[in-house]
Amino acid sequence: MTIQFNEETFRDDYSFHNSARAIKRFPFPFHEDSYMYSVNMEQHRGGPEGSVYENRFDVDEHYLAEMRDRAMVLADDPLRCQSLPHMTLAGWDLLEVIMVSKSEDYPDLFELHRDGDRWRWINKPMGIDDTFTFLDETTLPYGPMEYITRQAQGDFCILDQRDEMLWMDAGMITTQADWSLDFDIGMNFFEWHAPVPLAHELGIFTRALKFLLNIPQGAPARRLNWTMTVNPLLDTSPENYHKWGIQKTSLTPENVGSKQHLRVELQTFFRLPRSNALVFPIRCYLIAFQDLVSMPKWGRRMHRVLRELPDELATYKGFIDNRPMMLDYLSKFDDGQPTSPGVWPDPETEPPLNTEIRNHTDGNSVDHNRSA
Amino acid sequence: MSKFQFPDSILSRPVYGTLAPRQGKSHLMIADAEGAEAILDLAARDAGLMSNSHIIYIPKGTDFAPKLGALSVAQLYVGPSYEASLPRLRHVLANAHQGLQVYLAGTEGLIGQAQNEAMRAGISPTSIQTEHRGSVARRMQCVHCKGITEDVMHDPFQCAHCGLHLFVRDHYSRRQAAYQGVCVDAEDPGSAPDPVELYS
After folding, report:
1. Which of B112, B132, B152 is the last residue in one of the domains?
2. Phi, psi dihedrals of residue A313, rounded to the nearest 5°
């Protein structure tokens, strides 16, 4: 097999880690030295070889560990996976698109053999070899959406489209950035986004909805979103916030590099063929600050983005209290040199960290209001 | 006056109107407490409506029931609690005919739950009107234990089921007919601020 799957955890001892390859292909979300909401959509038609954009559904070294974590979350709380009764057909649509995509994109890992509606699915990494009847729920151990998303990294929302609106009517949500499927299921696009600050006033959701309603068959789209997580914790759910929230206070100047993670969501959007629903996979990538700053460009830029981020966004994303400590750490990796445009790390062309300048700004980095 | 002007809020928060008489073969009115006043106002605008009306009313300690009784409606039920009225409500909805108009008035918890029942029975949302009257107390779901705490008047409040201290959000789920409560002191246990009355 081409991918070495990590033996790692996203809880308890947090043995999650990124290999050098995973660091280099990390989907860094900032294309310039500042950040504000935008409808940052682009077509999801591949990307540079080896990047997370190359395939329709990226499979990486964390696959097996993420699937183990999902199974544990579901055992604790089955309400993380729900599908309203009219969404079963969309679940089959999703099963088909994932099986077809993965077997084509990773033929050494996944196989799909179809003989009419008699399908055989082989998932080698997970040791699954199932034969079932397409569109017959009784031939699978779970509903079609749950069956396939127990074998696919990332959360999945399936959005029904009716009345010129999208409705959150099904989902597998175990790695969410603090929102509850159980509470939001059945809501429309504006309702489930209601708690997001600033973006409504900027017209972001009106434009995003217009774009999404018009995504056609065979032309998926993608965007990145991001937040911050202390410890490589996938299950940052509101359901368990009373358990994990305290971990935010465990950050110290000594451990911020290893504990503080940038959390990036690769969000993709596919029109589903039979149901006309839209599937919205939300794939979560985590990277520790100490790994992020190993790319000099990313270290410089992360510092500048966090320094300039409006307080409302830092509050909404849940790291306003830790921001000073994060900036203290990151300032050591920002020598003030310019950064190249775009998200790629450009390690061959970006200058290494200039420690002269670093040492100069290092001693007293408490004043974060220095204008850029 | 039992009407309260809610401040602007986020888009998932329900907004309520003013009940208006509508053409319909029959009319189902469900109200609690001061919601009775909205029905009395409706009757004042169109007394003819009432002879085809079925009122389901939960007084919650108020004394509007005799006034509703004087409206000469087709059917009037005065019950001790919303839960007690549910079998009757479901029966009426299950046997409803095309052309039924639904009027909901009173607290947010009553309106939200009855709206849910009506929609599950297949009543079109365009045939359902709502008017908030009386208490601004909220029906809250604890996002952690999923338990519902009725008639929450303070923020934060203690979950009636798991005991966590919860912050009262404006985020609202029609399916739960409830607002979301989220642990207020997760990052500093024991630091829950003193409760403040809603909209005070």
Report:
1. B132
2. -75, -40
Q: What residues in A contact B141, CB-CB < 8 Å?
A: 183
Same domain for B144 and B127: no
Q: A239 and B143: CB-CB below 8 Å?
A: yes
Strands (E), chain A: 42-43, 81-83, 110-115, 118-123, 128-133, 155-162, 165-172, 221-230, 260-271, 278-288
- Pick among A168, A228, A239, A242 to test the B interface (most B CBs inside 10 A): A242
Whether residue B92 lies inside any domain: the answer is: yes
Nearest chain B CA: its distance from A244 CA (Å) = 8
pLDDT digits (tens, 9 = 90+) for A353-368: 998 765 444 444 444 3
Q: Which of B87, B109, B132 is the last residue of a domain?
A: B132
Alpha carbons B157 and B165: distance in angstroms, whole number: 6
Query: Domain for residue B8, yes or no?
Result: no
- Domain check: are B118 and B61 in the same one? yes
Element (H, E) at B196: strand B196-197
CATH of the domain at B101: 3.40.50.80
> Which residue in A290, A363, A301, A289 sits closest to A336, CA to CA?
A301
Same domain as B177, residue B107: no
- Chain position carrying tokens 């850029």: A372
- Condensed to tens digits (0 to 9), the pLDDT of residues A185-234 reads 999 999 999 998 888 888 889 999 999 999 999 999 999 999 999 999 99
Residues B32 and B124 in one domain: yes
Q: Are residues B50 and B103 in the same domain?
A: yes
Residues B60-84, mean pLDDT to the nearest whole number: 96
Please classify residue B147 by burial: count the beta carbons closer than 10 Å to its beta carbon, then call 0-12 exposed, 13-18 middle and 19+ buried.
middle
pTM of the model: 0.92
**B115, B173, B174: best to mutate for the A interface, most A CBs within 10 A:** B173
Claim to verify: residue B122 and residue B36 sit in the same structural domain: yes
Q: CA nearest B181 in A: which residue?
A: A238
Domain with B168, as residue range(s), is 138-197
- Interface predicted TM-score of the whole assembly (ipTM), two decimals: 0.92
B78's torsion region: left (phi>0), alpha (psi -120 to 50) or beta? beta
For residues B145 and B128, membership in a common domain is answered with: no
State which H helix or E strand residue A257 sits in.
helix A256-259
Count of alpha carbons within 13 angstroms of residue A294, beta-carbon side: 15
B140 pLDDT band, cuts 50/70/90, is very high
Which residue among B169, B171, B187 places its CB closest to the CB of A245? B187
Distances (CA, A) of B173 to A215, A295, B148: 27, 43, 12
Q: Which of A56, A70, A223, A323 is catalytic?
A: A223
B32 and B91 in a single domain? The answer is yes
**Any domain includes B9:** no
Residue B183 lies in a domain: yes
For the question of residue A114 being annotated catalytic, the response is: no
Number of structural domains in chain B: 2
- The answer to whether A245 contacts B171, with C-beta atoms less than 8 Å apart, is no
Read off the pLDDT of residues B76-114 as tens digits, 9 standing for 90 and up: 999 999 999 999 999 999 999 999 999 999 999 999 999
